[in-house]
Specification:
11 helices, elongated, single chain, mainly alpha, transcription, about 240 residues
Length: about 240
């Protein structure tokens, strides 16, 4: 007789199955019955492990933030923090493009079964304490912003609030691009995202020349990363 799966194993499998259902069919497929069938358990297991769909959606959102953090961690740090911010932006955009349904739930833009993820204000200490997974992802942008301040590229400012400005612009771009507003392929990056990033960097205290050099460095880093991954790079 095979061993009975541990509760934590079943819970993790349910979250992974929920992400697969989202990826394959969107938020309308995230139902207790379909989820149970995907994992091979009874519908009651969903309620046993989560108490209801609202808690499941919160777990999916937490998993989304952790995946985003893993993506952003791959960027690493260079001696140019502003270039690193551009690299993080490009990576963020790719992550969301690869799993749009997951990240729509993660950021509260989608509400499967009418249940929207519980989100926190990561610019406040209370919000950061309430959402450690969201903070883990956000901290990649915060750290690069802090380094830009320390290097004199950005004016002294609250690092969380400054990073939130960058995040707001980035996520707005990604959301609009995903809806088709900036055309196909990569043209939105050159025409919108990079000029937007330069404008924000200058607004935060950088110079146009330094910001442009940082975008060039970020482009070169992106080409190197995609070549190493065997994908072929586009500017």
């Amino acid at each position: 007789m095979s061993p009975k799966p541990r509760a934590t194993d079943v819970k993790a499998r349910l979250v992974e199955a929920a992400i697969r259902l989202l990826d394959d069919g969107g938020p309308e497929t995230l139902q207790a019955r379909k989820l149970a069938a995907e994992v091979g358990v009874s519908t009651m297991a969903v309620y046993t492990h989560f108490g209801g769909m609202a808690a499941l959606v919160d777990e999916v959102a937490r998993a989304g933030f952790l995946r985003l953090s893993e993506w952003l961690a791959e960027v690493g740090e260079t001696d140019d923090p502003v270039a690193d911010i551009f690299s993080l932006a490009r990576t963020y955009r790719q992550a969301v493009a690869e799993q749009p349904q997951l990240f729509a739930v993660t950021f509260g833009q989608s509400a499967p079964g009418g249940k929207r993820a519980t989100l926190s204000d990561l610019t406040t200490e209370e919000g950061r304490e309430a959402a450690p997974e969201g903070l883990e992802a956000f901290e990649h942008i915060v750290r690069a912003t802090e380094r830009a301040i320390e290097a004199g590229r950005f004016r002294p400012a609250d690092k969380y609030q400054a990073a939130a400005q960058l995040w707001s612009a980035l996520h707005g771009f990604v959301t609009l691009e995903a809806s088709g507003h900036f055309g196909p392929g990569e043209q939105g990056i050159d025409h919108i995202l990079i000029p937007l990033g330069i404008t924000l960097a200058v607004g935060l205290g950088d110079t146009v020349d330094r910001a442009e050099r940082s975008t060039d460095a970020a482009k070169a880093a992106w080409r190197a990363r995609t070549r190493n991954a065997g994908q072929g790079g586009n500017d």
